[in-house]
Amino acid sequence: MYISIISTLFAYVCILLAVAFFTLLERKGLSYIQIRKGPNKVGFMGLPQPLADAAKLLTKEIAKPTMANYSPYFLAPIFSFILALLLWQLYPSLYSCSYFKWGVLFFLCVSGMNVYGTLLAGWASNSKYALLGSLRAIAQTISYEVSMALILLFPLFLVGSFSFIEIKESQEYIWFSFLMIPVSFMWFVTCIAETNRAPFDFAEGESELVSGFNIEYGAAGFALIFLAEYANILVMSLFSALLFFGGSSMILFESDVVFMLKVLFFAFAFIWVRGSYPRFRYDLLMGLTWKGFLPAALSFLLLVAMLSSCIFY
């Protein structure tokens, strides 16, 4: 029991460090995409910059808006942060202390609750900009969760298991992305929309909402929201690599190091997309999932179900 607790705490510390330095990678990547210098003043090549940012945020005075509903206002960032860390329990490693047989259902349940943290943050701030940002984020997240759940059914139909570890191990000879190229593309776009990232970052539209649902937050509250957002980006990169670019952990070439390189590639793809595309229009965003991804996913799913039934028959 003690080993399990220590292992979990150590994993959470590693996740927080990964999130911190992923922010540095994003700022450096965006700066070179835009032909400018990124953070380079703090220490050697700006490497301690995330630690300096964390120290600054955690030592600032906590803001208390006069008209805010204090209990949900302070609980919302903590709630979002806890949910982001919970998803990392599904990391498919041979050294994991816990094994989730129904990991896909756990993922859908936890990711479905993410909207409540955003809703609480926007509503409890008692600011019209924060409320508008949270309503946008909720509509966007709920819409794309439908297509995300349908896309998740493709690996389930092929493997016949709800376990992420079995889905990963079943791709020892061929990646699912080669079998379902359009579906893997839809999954990645859905991941970007689920995490409210550019070009789908309507929850934080600076031009019209000042900062969006987190405008009234500062210091530790903003840090927790920030950590939750980037932890979700990394975990969605993890599931993208797992569902469509997995492989057996029992052979040398598919060790945890190789798998994490795949995760890093998808994480950098989030940055690349942000630096390459302007913000989408909101009605086009909703039309993309309801008129594009949903019919396409249902059609592909019907085809895969028919093929699976013919093969097993």
From TrEMBL:
<feature type="transmembrane region" description="Helical">
    <location>
        <begin position="257"/>
        <end position="273"/>
    </location>
</feature>
<dbReference type="InterPro" id="IPR018086">
    <property type="entry name" value="NADH_UbQ_OxRdtase_su1_CS"/>
</dbReference>
<feature type="transmembrane region" description="Helical">
    <location>
        <begin position="293"/>
        <end position="312"/>
    </location>
</feature>
<keyword id="KW-0472">Membrane</keyword>
<feature type="transmembrane region" description="Helical">
    <location>
        <begin position="103"/>
        <end position="125"/>
    </location>
</feature>
<dbReference type="GO" id="GO:0008137">
    <property type="term" value="F:NADH dehydrogenase (ubiquinone) activity"/>
</dbReference>
<dbReference type="GO" id="GO:0005743">
    <property type="term" value="C:mitochondrial inner membrane"/>
</dbReference>
<comment type="similarity">
    <text>Belongs to the complex I subunit 1 family.</text>
</comment>
<feature type="transmembrane region" description="Helical">
    <location>
        <begin position="146"/>
        <end position="167"/>
    </location>
</feature>
<keyword id="KW-1133">Transmembrane helix</keyword>
<feature type="transmembrane region" description="Helical">
    <location>
        <begin position="233"/>
        <end position="252"/>
    </location>
</feature>
<feature type="transmembrane region" description="Helical">
    <location>
        <begin position="6"/>
        <end position="25"/>
    </location>
</feature>
<dbReference type="InterPro" id="IPR001694">
    <property type="entry name" value="NADH_UbQ_OxRdtase_su1/FPO"/>
</dbReference>
<dbReference type="GO" id="GO:0009060">
    <property type="term" value="P:aerobic respiration"/>
</dbReference>
<keyword id="KW-0496">Mitochondrion</keyword>
<protein>
    <recommendedName>
        <fullName>NADH-ubiquinone oxidoreductase chain 1</fullName>
        <ecNumber>7.1.1.2</ecNumber>
    </recommendedName>
</protein>
<keyword id="KW-0520">NAD</keyword>
<feature type="transmembrane region" description="Helical">
    <location>
        <begin position="70"/>
        <end position="91"/>
    </location>
</feature>
<feature type="transmembrane region" description="Helical">
    <location>
        <begin position="173"/>
        <end position="193"/>
    </location>
</feature>
<dbReference type="Pfam" id="PF00146">
    <property type="entry name" value="NADHdh"/>
</dbReference>
<keyword id="KW-0830">Ubiquinone</keyword>
<keyword id="KW-0812">Transmembrane</keyword>
<dbReference type="GO" id="GO:0003954">
    <property type="term" value="F:NADH dehydrogenase activity"/>
</dbReference>
